[in-house]
Specification:
The chain has ten helices and 18 strands. By secondary structure, it is an alpha+beta fold. The protein has two domains: about 140 residues, Jelly Rolls; about 240 residues, Phosphatase 2c, domain 1 (4-Layer Sandwich). β4 and β5 form a beta hairpin. α4 runs parallel beside α6, α6 runs antiparallel to α7 and α9 crosses α10.
Length: about 400
């Protein structure tokens, strides 16, 4: 009995009671031996008992809306739970489950009410202790709430700063991909029309796109997709932009040398990242296009005289994967009505609700359908089809496409 009285004396709602008063509680305690994984208290059930752990361990959990269990705490020998069920008739606020074979004392509200009715001293001390415990918990809640407000305010200020940085980064990245040039040169005087879509999955992305005039009658284009997306990948697009600026005048019409330079540059500067890439040089007067690949998906090349796509093959590993990588080129003649569509894998790897990918096959068939129908806004209609397929316009990865029409 002395051991049980000692345990009771350390419980806040029984503090101040004499040994004799505590001894009166002992006979109305019932003892239960429970195996591991026994449910002692179920969240939401109406409680009518308090529990004291004599030996063993229990875990306290909350059930989330999706049915999963979130661990709140563990309770051990001498600890207690459910004490307010002795004075209220409210649902249990959590689940309690034994972690191992556990022995528990149970104090039933009905039995305890009869004891209080017969002993005014225990009754007065118990209610006074309950009031103190309630106000103590209330003060802790207020204190925690005040701290949480302060913490949230600091986090909100930090998030505001991050959002401002992201807004600026978005503007800078638009400069990186030269969107002004892409828009103003949408319909050129050299018989080449291009249209593009650049849609990052978040504010800033890891796709890169640029079109540039190398000299009269010669246009260059590069499209790249960095591993991942977000801030790190977006910063890498800046590295690519700066590297291009250094060598474009000398290597812009030399695809193999250009790819080799970019590969070695990336391997030295940001070896942790790699990119897939396609580079093209369009000779409008000579009516030919030169293509170089670095691990990227081949473009769709539509030949008007065949009224179909023509396959192309070109070797080349991703940029930055290894030093001294080798790259090849392939040339295609250009005829009126031909089209070339470059894209990143964000479109073909987009999933729908059934976890099916949009796929290159579906994209190819959709582009074929649009071309044969004489569609003048092919990329917009292709994006509409992607949205319809996936059920959202918020994609999992960056979506970038550029279409050249001759």
């Amino acid at each position: 009995m002395e051991h049980i009285i000692q345990i009771l004396s350390e419980i806040p709602i029984f503090q101040g009671l004499s040994r004799e008063d505590l001894a009166l509680i002992v006979p109305i305690l019932s003892t239960h031996e429970l195996p591991a994984e026994s449910l002692v208290v179920k969240e939401g059930d109406i409680g009518d008992s308090m529990f004291i752990i004599k030996s063993g361990t229990v875990r306290v959990t909350k059930t989330e809306e999706n049915g999963s269990e979130v661990l709140i705490s563990h309770l051990y020998k001498g600890q207690y739970f459910g004490e307010f069920s002795l004075i209220d008739n409210l649902p249990r606020s959590a689940n309690v489950v034994t972690e191992e074979a556990t022995e528990i004392f149970t104090l039933n509200r009905g039995d305890f009410d009869r004891l209080l009715a017969a002993n005014i001293v225990i009754k007065a001390a118990f209610h006074q202790n309950c009031l103190k415990e309630t106000f103590s918990r209330f003060r802790n809640i207020i204190s925690n709430f005040t701290f949480a407000q302060h913490d949230l305010r600091e986090k909100r200020e930090a998030l505001d700063e991050i959002n401002r940085d992201l807004s600026l980064a978005k503007k800078l990245q638009r400069y990186f991909i030269n969107t002004d040039y892409l828009r103003t040169e949408h319909t050129a005087d050299n018989g080449v029309r291009h249209s593009y879509i650049y849609k990052p999955s978040i504010a800033i992305g890891g796709d890169f796109l640029n079109v540039f005039q190398l000299r009269d009658g010669v246009v260059g284009m590069i499209i790249a997709d960095f591993e991942g997306h977000g801030i790190t990948a977006a910063l890498a697009t800046g590295v690519l932009k700066s590297a291009l600026s250094i060598v474009l005048a000398d290597l812009g019409e030399k695809p193999i040398e250009l790819m080799s330079f970019l590969n070695d540059h990336f391997h030295k500067v940001i070896a942790q990242l790699y990119a897939t890439c396609y580079y093209a040089v369009i000779h409008t007067e000579e009516r030919r296009i030169v293509l170089a690949k670095a691990g990227h998906h081949h473009p769709l090349v539509w030949k008007a005289r065949l009224n179909d796509f023509t396959p192309i093959e070109c070797p080349g590993t991703g940029l930055g994967l290894m030093p001294n990588a080798r790259f090849g080129v392939v040339e295609q003649d250009i005829e009126p009505g031909d089209k070339v569509l470059f894209f990143t894998d964000g479109i073909i790897e987009q999933m729908n609700g059934s976890h099916e990918m949009y796929s290159k096959k579906r994209m190819t068939e959709k582009v074929r359908e649009l071309i044969l129908a004489g569609e003048t806004n092919t990329l917009d209609r292709l994006l509409d089809d992607l949205v319809a397929f996936s059920g959202t316009d918020q994609f999992e990865d960056d979506v970038t496409m550029i279409l050249f029409e001759f």
